[in-house]
Amino acid sequence: MSNNADYPPTIGRMALERTVRYALEEDIGTGDVTTDSTVPVGLWASGAIESNSEGVVAGLPVVHEVYRQLDESVHVEDRVREGDRIVRGDVLALVTGPARAILTGERVALNFLQRMCGIATLTSRFVEAVAGTRVFVTDTRKTTPGLRFLEKYAVRVGGGRNHRMGLSHAVLIKDNHIVAAGGIREAVARATRATAHTMTVTVECATLEDVIEALEAGADILLLDNMDVETLTAAARIAAGRAILEASGGVTLDNVAAVARTGVDCISVGALTHSAPALDIRLTLTLGAAA
Question: Mean pLDDT for each consecutive 10-residue tract of the chain (291 residues)?
C-alpha cells in the first residue's frame, strides 16, 4: 500500500479519487492487453520514477492515488518532496509491487506527474523573475477541463498564487459583460447590488479611460488587460492605491520583470496552466524488490 496516506488539503481527497478513477478507466478500458498477455502473474518488480530534466516536483500524491486505486499491494516510496528542485537523473519515487500493476498504472501516473511538475516548474521561473518586488504571480481559469484543482495546486507548489477557482468565487466583469450591461458603471452597480458585501468586484480595463471609470464606479480590483509597460505605469499613478491592480495578457518570462516594476500588485499568467511544457519523467522497471 502507498506510504503516503495524507493528502495535501489543497488537493482534496474526494476530487482526487474521482479524477484518478476516470483517468484509469479511460486508459485501461476492459484491460491492459499488452501487460496481461506478456507479464506473468505474480511477478514482483520495482519501478524507479526518474527525471530526465531539471524542474520542480509537484504531483507525487497523485502517483500514490493511482496505485492505491489500481492495486493496494503496490508500495510507493517518495524520494523527494513536493516543491523540491530536481535535476536529470534524480529519482522522485520508487514503486514496488506486482509488475502487472506497476506497468498498467505507469502512463496515467506519469501523465499526471509530468503535467504537474511542468506547471510548477514554469510557475517557479515567473516567481523568480519578479523576486525583489512586491508583486505576486497568479494563474487564471485557462486550465485543462476536469484538472483545474490539480493544475492550480501545482501553481501553488511552484510559488504562485491562485486566481478564482471558478465563476462562483468572485465577480470578474470582462469586456463582453460590459457590453451586455451597457457600460462599466452599470455593470459594477448591478454586481454590487446582486452579491454579498464580502464578494470582490474586478473590472477588466483595456484603456486608461476604463481605469478611471472603474475606479469611479467603486471596483475593488482592476484587471489591466494587454497594456504595455508605459500604460501600466500610468494606470498605477491614476489608481494611487484605490484598487488592487492586476496586469494580465501578453506577459512572458522576458517582460514580466518590467511589468512588475510598473506599480501593479499582481500579474496573472494564463501560460502557467495552458502552455507549460511537461517535465520529462520516466519509469525504469527492474525485477524483484528495490534496494
Answer: 48 89 97 96 96 97 97 96 97 97 98 98 98 97 95 97 93 96 96 94 98 97 97 98 96 97 98 97 86 43
Neighbouring-strand partners of residue 45: 97, 287
Distance CA 236, CA 231 (A): 9
Question: Domains in the chain, please, with CATH?
Answer: 13-121+277-287 (3.90.1170.20), 128-274 (3.20.20.70)
* 113: nearest Cα among 95, 100, 128, 101: 95
Grid coordinates representing 291? Answer: 534496494
Which active-site residues does the annotation give? 107, 142, 174, 204, 225
Provide the whole-model pTM: 0.93
Bridge partner residues of 56 (DSSP): 85
Q: Are strands 91-98 and 75-78 parallel, antiparallel or unpaired?
A: antiparallel
